[in-house]
Amino acid sequence: MASNGGLGSLGAEGAMSAAHALSLPAEAYGNDPQLEMMWAMKAFQHAEIYFNLISSVDPKFLRLTKADDKIYTEFREKFPNLNIQILDPEALKSEQAKEEWRPFCMQFDGTVEDYNYGTLLRLNSEKDYTEENTIFATRIQFYAIEIARNREGYNNTVFQRSSKVKINSKPEGDS
């Protein structure tokens, strides 16, 4: 993932201002385009870090939160047949889906920090974050789906592809 124009482009002072602005309550803002841009940059940064993580570490060993076991158990009890390998956006965004997801998400209020923050989520677990492969979801939806993908082996492709690139790019003579 490229990080052109991300939070790093703000500089230290700009990043501190952005962090402060994002910590204020939502009521302090209207539909401020600058705030929306800061949220988008924060979501992009989160996505970039996560993708780098699953590209570098075998996903089956990752723990995303202290509540991973509970999140996974509750997720699979509530959504046992949800196809997480290739998500259908309607499974998250339709009115019926929102009604089904709401109680699941709310149970993590106070347990999972920033559970309702907006986060980028890949539709196809085998692909990178691209405009066509990304939707906006809540943080707890991201955690539920990505924890399940890690435990059920759907993120292995990303890790294996990255591992092959690293092996193939080693100079001759290196072990």
Automatic annotation (TrEMBL):
InterPro entries, sorted: PBDC1-like_dom_sf (IPR023139), PBDC1_metazoa/fungi (IPR008476), Polysacc_synth_dom (IPR021148)
Superkingdom: Eukaryota
GO cellular component, one term: cytoplasm
Domain Polysaccharide biosynthesis per the UniProt entry, residue ranges: 35-159
Name of the featured protein: Polysaccharide biosynthesis domain containing 1
Organism: Erpetoichthys calabaricus (Rope fish)
Gene expressing this chain: PBDC1
